[in-house]
């Protein structure tokens, strides 16, 4: 198997210059668990860490021993938690939250508009629709929440757990898509209805306007116009903050970690994420390959099969153990083949493997064990 550089997760998380780590990958590969384990490892070593999940699933709260998560960071009680490296270092804290797009939108409006105008915006039916259902709202609000956390300066490190799909990276397009939306002709017309409608009529497009009204309704069109007029003074600030967060993610203080399992579909998605990040010139740390099956002994598949033939049925327990080992070796051979294909496409991308464990990460001790495997602490203490 062609060797790739080893991803030093411990070095990434302990580097004080690294303030943002973003995990991405397909569903079911342990991405949320990886994000939580990295955040816990960094907190135990004295960093004040916030882990933000954009994935609406509840796995992060369960892993951290919390009943639920919402849009406000909640501190995780690390208590007397210890692992191979001892207790939590002074200053170490772990906070967790789950993105609520609607609440983040509301907070953004409240902080950048007068109280009177904010109330008018909140009451607008069009705002109520786009703040929850408009395409791209979740991605833009993810950018906004990350911007808020970074600007607050309360945390040494922010770990972002993205949704389990290709749309996880849609927030990279948020500044450009937002600019296109705000600069679009319909927005300009709605923000200046008097002059805009005269231009439409003068251009002979009133039939189009009536058609739009018949489809979405005159009241909805009026609500949209009022919303845009109320929001007009805030558009510039939106665009600037989105661009600032995008620049943050491209800077030296941020890094991305792609998470995958040794399966064809998962590694195909991982390759997509890696290619997309590299094309965007985003700082990509490397790949975490979860749930691998390294052999438990140094017997290769040929030696194992020879031993099985020699034993026959004379030693049933030894035969059963060797049969399990043979199946693991076969599985491992397929994992090596899949990893080699990925490495061939990304030869310079660092990779770290995390072996499959016989338990789910449903509490902090389990997360610590995964963190030790992720950072190599388990290997060093073996």
Automatic annotation (TrEMBL):
Native species: Nakamurella alba
Name of protein: AAA family ATPase
InterPro entries in alphabetical order: ArsA/GET3_ATPase-like, ATPase_ArsA/GET3, P-loop_NTPase
Pfam families: ArsA_ATPase
PANTHER family per record: ANION TRANSPORTER ATPASE-RELATED, ARSENICAL PUMP-DRIVING ATPASE ARSENITE-TRANSLOCATING ATPASE
Domain ArsA/GET3 Anion-transporting ATPase-like: 19-292
Origin: domain of life: Bacteria
GO MF annotation, one: ATP hydrolysis activity
């Amino acid at each position: 198997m062609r060797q790739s550089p080893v991803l030093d997760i411990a070095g990434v998380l302990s580097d004080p210059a690294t303030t943002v780590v973003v995990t991405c990958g397909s569903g079911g590969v342990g991405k949320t668990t990886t994000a939580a384990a990295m955040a816990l490892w960094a907190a135990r070593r004295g960093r004040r860490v916030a882990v933000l999940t954009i994935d609406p699933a509840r796995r992060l709260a369960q892993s951290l021993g919390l009943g639920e998560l919402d849009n406000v960071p909640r501190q995780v009680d690390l208590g007397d938690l210890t692992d191979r490296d001892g207790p939590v270092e002074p200053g170490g804290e772990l906070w967790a939250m789950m993105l609520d797009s609607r609440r983040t939108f509301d907070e953004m409006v409240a902080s950048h508009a007068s109280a009177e105008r904010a109330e008018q915006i909140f009451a607008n039916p069009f705002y109520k629709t786009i703040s929850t259902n408009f395409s791209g709202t979740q991605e833009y609000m993810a950018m906004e929440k990350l911007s808020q956390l970074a600007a607050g300066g309360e945390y040494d490190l922010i770990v972002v757990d993205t949704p389990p799909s290709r749309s996880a990276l849609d927030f990279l397009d948020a500044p450009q898509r937002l600019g296109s939306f705000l600069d679009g002709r319909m927005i300009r017309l709605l923000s200046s209805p008097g002059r805009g409608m005269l231009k439409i009529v003068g251009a002979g497009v009133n039939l189009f306007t009536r058609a739009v009204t018949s489809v979405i309704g005159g009241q909805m069109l009026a609500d949209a116009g009022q919303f845009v007029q109320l929001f007009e003074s805030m558009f510039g600030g939106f665009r600037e903050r989105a661009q600032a967060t995008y620049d943050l993610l491209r800077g030296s203080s941020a890094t991305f970690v792609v998470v995958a399992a040794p399966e064809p579909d998962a590694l195909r998605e991982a390759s997509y994420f890696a290619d997309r990040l590299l094309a965007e010139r985003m700082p990509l740390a490397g790949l975490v390959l979860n749930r691998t099956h390294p052999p438990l002994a140094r017997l290769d598949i040929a030696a194992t099969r020879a031993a099985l033939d020699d034993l026959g049925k004379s030693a049933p327990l030894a035969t059963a153990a060797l049969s399990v080992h043979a199946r693991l070796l076969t599985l491992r051979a397929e994992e090596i083949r899949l990893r080699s294909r990925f490495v061939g496409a990304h030869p310079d991308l660092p990779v770290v493997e995390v072996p499959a464990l016989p338990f789910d990460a449903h509490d902090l001790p389990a997360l610590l064990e995964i963190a030790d495997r992720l950072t190599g602490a388990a290997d060093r203490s073996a």
